[in-house]
Predict the structure.
Amino acid sequence: MEAFTTHTGRAVPLRRGNVDTDQIIPAHWLKKVTRDGFEDGLFEAWRKDPEFILNRPERQGATVLVAGPDFGTGSSREHAVWALQNYGFKTVISSRFADIFRGNSLKNGLLTVVLEQKIVDALWELTEADPSAEITVDLEAREVRAEGVTASFELDENSRWRLLNGLDDISITLQNEPDIAAYEQRRPAHKPRTLQG
Amino acid sequence: MGRTLAEKVWDDHVVRRAQGEPDLLYIDLHLLHEVTSPQAFDGLRQNGRQVRRLDLTIATEDHNTPTLDIDKPIADPVSRAQLETLRKNCAEFGVRLHPLGDVEQGVVHVVGPQLGLTQPGTTVVCGDSHTSTHGAFGALAFGIGTSQVEHVLATQTLPMARPKTMAITVDGELPEGVSAKDLILAIIARIGTGGGQGYILEYRGSAIERLSMEARMTICNMSIEAGARAGMIAPDETTFAYLKGRPHAPEGAEWDAAVEYWKTLRTDEDAEFDAEVVIDAAALSPFVTWGTNPGQGAPLSADVPDPASYEDASERLAAEKALEYMGLEAGAPLRSIKVDTVFVGSCTNGRIEDLRTVAEILKDRKVADGVRMLVVPGSARVGLQAAAEGLDVVFKEAGAEWRYAGCSMCLGMNPDQLAPGERSASTSNRNFEGRQGKGGRTHLVSPQVAAATAVLGHLASPADLTDDRTPAGV
Ligand code: SF4
């Protein structure tokens, strides 16, 4: 997983609350057998409307999603995180995330930032008025900065450490590789093997 | 203080233990199938990782495979894509695969034991909740999610918090005609579908010790339906006899060393369980489900329960909803329920012993008019063995359909499905709404009840068959 230290990018202000994972990535996309290629399914229903904010030319290449409260409710599908990442989002800002979605996002390296609604409002106003306005999410300083906005946010130490170092569950386990190798050394010879010889 | 079976196996697999962290457990055997593995392989690819232990990993195809015309291309594009992806991934990473058409193909939980890969005192995982089946050998076996599948592929380990332990002691003798399936359905009805949550179950007692390996697998298979991720039975002479001579069982001096270790895998006299349940085997009778979860079951001799009889409001509501979905009237005798379809198969009851039981009852009898009966071996090997014993002829002469191996009608992911409103007696493990096809209604039953039901057209046990058997050919 990619490390996240600090990121600066243009934003998509998404003025909607209670965006559930089925709206983020509809169920029929779950039939796919890969972890990439979900970008076209992101907010699929809304994107049929040419006026939907993600479709606007001035929002192309934006990497920061500023969403309404209760983002990511509903089914626990990890695909919702993959769809946001595949599309190009590095971070999502909201005043409240659903728990499972938040867990999935941090595990996968998508930084979800919780800010007070009045700061989210300020970011909406700024980026709606000026689509080229940039937002910086600084994980080292735990701070979000934009023109006229400086706000600190919280994240538990363990998640922060993992993101800063780009460590997924597997890399964390692999830090104990010597223990695994030592265990393998002492495993009895009678244990089954799927490959002979 | 002594340790339980589960604790012994757990302790023997701890790679790393640190304060405030889950234990890192070593995994002896990783079983793969097409449904839960694609994104795990993709994750490896994206991160440039390899499979750490190809020699502890094996794959087969089961959920999506058709049980007819297996040489023809698979019609459903999603099923086809999942199977093709598994084949591509196994080829790319070097994983041993038994695809459709291969003699070792079959339901993943039938294949592992049959090859002798599932052994006492091992840890077994698979991206499938019925991995608990393998606990019948005294293995610690549990289902995992796709991200854990990736974790095991890459590291051969899993970080896990140790569950509590629950003893389910079954003493006495099962009456004639009462099988392991009836026993586990009765256990689930007793402790509830959430009763085992957070526990590893250990089935013990004289009734369990008398069971064959097949029957033990039926029991452990459904541990998950009681909410437990794993169920175990201590290995004994029955286990060793089943394993001896299987393709992947140890041989010579290694066999001796293995048996010596396996014999230590019993719960110590002074060990303590976190919870205990005692069941009297002699009091059991054939058991069937009437509702839409495996805990909604009753003796076949009972009536459909009246929801009003439940004191607990949520249970009452659940029963009302279940009866509505199932199209059943409270108070109707369970024996009066007519079925359209009978399904024999799945990782619960798709092994050779199950097929023998069904054949014995069907011999010289006919499946009732208007009833469709599917007999699906749990693996291609089981199918071959059944054919070698002539069981396939018995099924076909009775009017049942004899199919190729796979999960088949256990779940609506392949062509074998119930139509909306259709009702089945099924030897599988889940009677959830739509499990066997959209709108389908499922009664979970034992192989004995399945066979008798097929003959009579309504839920029945072999004791209800009062005929003198139709002579063959009439
Ligand atoms: S037979 Fe049924 S329960 Fe068993 S693995 Fe297949 S789908 Fe799952």
